[in-house]
Amino acid sequence: MFRDGIEIPPSSHDILKFNIIATLNSSNDQPAPPSVDQSNIIQPDSTKLRFPPPESLKRDKFLWLSDGEFARQTLAGLNPYCIQLVKVSDD
User: In this protein, which residues make up the domain named Lipoxygenase (predicted)?
Assistant: First the structure.
C-alpha cells in the first residue's frame, strides 16, 4: 500500500477516484496532516493509489508489531484522525 500502491479496477477507476477524493476532503472535518500531500495519493494517469507511510512507520519499520500500535490501527486503521472519544449516550 505504501510502496507499491493499491491497484484500482479499471471499470470503477473514475467513481472510486471521486469517492476517495471526497472522503479525503471531508475526513471528519479534520484538516489533513501536514505530511500528507493528497495530490500524490491519486496520480491522474495511474490506476494505483499510493499512500504516504505514517510518520510512526517511517521512524520504525517494526513499530506495528507492538501492542499499542496494533490497537491504534485496529481502532482507527491508518488514519489516526478517525479515533474519537467514546461518550455515554443520554438515552
Answer: 1-91
Q: Indicate the number of domains in the chain.
A: 2
Cβ neighbours of 54 (radius 10 Å): 20
CA–CA gap between residue 7 and residue 26 (Å, rounded): 23
Same domain, 5 and 46: yes
SS3 label, residue 30: coil
Rounded CA-CA distance 38/83 in Å is 20
The β-bridge partners of 87 are none
Nearest partner of 51 among 16, 6, 18, judged by Cα: 6
Q: Say how far apart CA 5 and CA 66 lie, in whole Å.
A: 24
Predicted confidence (pLDDT) per residue in 42-82, tens digit:
555 566 666 677 777 778 878 878 888 778 777 766 555 65
Q: Please give the biggest Cα pair distance in the chain.
A: 50
Q: Are 1 and 51 in contact (CB under 8 A)?
A: yes
pTM for the model stands at 0.34
